[in-house]
Specification:
Layout (H helix, E strand, L loop, with lengths): L3 H14 L12 H10 L5 H14 L3 H5 L3 H8 L5 H19 L7 H4 L7 H11 L9 H10 L7 H11 L2 H17 L22
Length: 208
C-alpha cells in the first residue's frame, strides 16, 4: 500500500501534468451532465458528445425530456448502445427531477441513487462536478490505475471508492479522479502503458 507521503506526491505530480481536470462529457445544464453520464455507460465519452447536441436540441428542457416519445428518443441515442433502457431511464429520471426535486439535480448521494439509471459512479460525478462536494468517481481508468499504482488491490468499485476516500484529501478527491482518467488515456493505457515516460513512475508500485 502506498504511504501518505506517496499519495500526496502522486496528487502533486498529477496536478502538474493535468492542471485542468475537466470532465470529458460536454454539458451546459446540470441535468445534461446527469443524462450524458447515463448515456456513457458501456459507451465512450466521445460518442456521447456527438449525440447530446441533437438530444438537447430536440429536448431543450426537463419538461420536454419527461414528455418525450420513447421511440423517438431511442432513435436519437441509438448509437450509444443499450438505447432502450437508457431512453426509459432518462424519461423517468427527468420526471422524477421535476416531481420530487423541483427540477434540480439533488446534492445527496442517497437522493441521487433513487434516480433511474444512476449508480454510485454517476452520483459521485454529480456531487463533485455539479455540487463541488468531495467525490470519488470510480470508472475503468480509476480501477486500472489505482491497482497498478498500488493504492488498492481490488477490482470492486465500491471497495475502491471507500479506500480512496480514506487516502485522499476530500478537497482533492474529485479532481484526482478526473486526472486519473486523463492519465489513463494519455499514458497509462490498458494495453500498453508508457511507463518509460510516466510522470508518476517514481511512486508507482506496479511498473509493468
Amino acid at each position: 500500500m502506498i504511504t501518505k507521503p506517496g499519495i500526496l506526491e502522486l496528487i502533486s505530480l498529477l496536478e502538474e501534468c493535468y492542471p485542468e481536470p475537466v470532465c470529458a462529457l460536454d454539458y451546459g445544464k446540470d441535468y445534461e451532465l446527469l443524462f450524458a453520464a447515463r448515456l456513457a455507460a458501456q459507451c465512450t465519452d466521445a460518442r456521447v458528445n456527438t449525440v447530446t447536441p441533437e438530444l438537447y436540441g430536440r429536448y431543450p428542457t426537463l419538461e420536454s425530456l419527461a414528455g418525450a416519445d420513447v421511440s423517438e428518443l431511442e432513435g436519437i441515442i441509438h448509437s450509444c448502445g443499450f438505447f432502450r433502457t437508457k431512453a426509459r431511464d432518462i424519461i423517468a429520471a427527468a420526471s422524477m427531477l421535476i416531481g420530487e426535486f423541483g427540477g434540480r439535480v439533488p446534492d445527496e448521494m442517497e437522493e441521487l441513487l433513487r434516480l433511474p439509471g444512476v449508480g454510485r459512479k454517476t452520483a459521485n460525478l454529480m456531487l463533485g462536478d455539479i455540487h463541488k462536494k468531495p467525490a470519488v468517481v470510480v470508472d475503468t481508468h480509476c480501477i486500472r490505475l489505482t491497482n497498478r499504482i498500488g493504492l488498492v488491490s481490488t477490482k470492486d468499485p465500491l471497495k475502491i471508492e471507500l479506500a480512496l476516500r480514506k487516502l485522499l484529501p476530500p478537497d482533492k478527491s474529485s479532481d484526482f479522479c478526473h486526472r486519473l482518467v486523463l492519465h489513463g488515456r494519455a499514458v497509462c493505457t490498458a494495453r500498453s502503458p508508457a511507463c518509460d515516460i510516466c510522470s508518476v513512475a517514481g511512486v508507482c508500485k506496479k511498473i509493468l
